[in-house]
Give the backbone structure.
Amino acid sequence: MSSEPTSPDREAEKTARETVPAAAQQSRASERNESSKSSKSSESPHQFAQAVSASMSANMRRTANGDVDVLHAIGGWRGLVESSLPAVAFLVLFTVTKELNLSLIAALVAAAAFTLIRLVQGSKLVSALTGLVGVAICAFAAYRTGNASDYFVVGFWTNGLYSLGYLVSMAVRWPITGLIFGVIRGEGLTWRKNPVRVRQYMLATWIITILMLLRLAVQMPLYFANAVEALGATRLIMGLPLYALGVWLAWRVSAPGEASAGEASPGEAAEARDAEEAEAPETANSADSAEGSENR
């Protein structure tokens, strides 16, 4: 004789059957949540890098022959003049007159004139005031101490901070030149998956970093020697002209090598796919018409 399960036994079995699926569902839900958190945590740095990359490459573009537009990178001839003329006015007047206040006024007047021209031409207020604010900070530093060499001291801090940023970017293997050049080359951030491209962009970033550190190595001894004329001259020579040279060199050394020369960039690949898709219906129509003529 078979004994039937008692009522408590049946209830226990029912509870067990209900508990197992519920536990499995909770386990799957927990796994999905962990997976979602993991994917979000991995996407956050990637999205941040994309935003930084797009922002930093805003002033970069390519020429018709595919090289980096160095003149555009430094703001064109206008940017070169606007950034150099206030320092030239300060240096020339101080060299001739040795009057610090007069030299500072000349630099501020030159910067203010460029700002006014930009505002009249409809430039945004922030971009128009940027140059004036920079010159005003330099002038204040020199006026506060009464030392003409302090007009150039702000540039030391700027170069130092930029150099530190470039070094940090290489330490975490997100070289800044890769973030900038990757956008205008159509690579985006795909270069990070290629160890060769990472090394190329690391080298390019080193070039810019070394040039910035070279400025400090040459100019800081002149600052401590209070050689205002020599400091001002080297500041002009090693300013935008040296930066433009660095950008060009960094672009050249980070150019895709022969191994990837035959590979189309993501933008070119997309254009090729669009062209193939556009040609596919035409090819099919031609084949259909040819087949129809043969049948006739």
Notes: Confidence is low (pLDDT under 50) at residues 258-265, 267-272, 289-296. The radius of gyration is 32 Å. DSSP finds twelve helices and no strands in the chain. Residues 7-56 form the longest helix (50 residues).
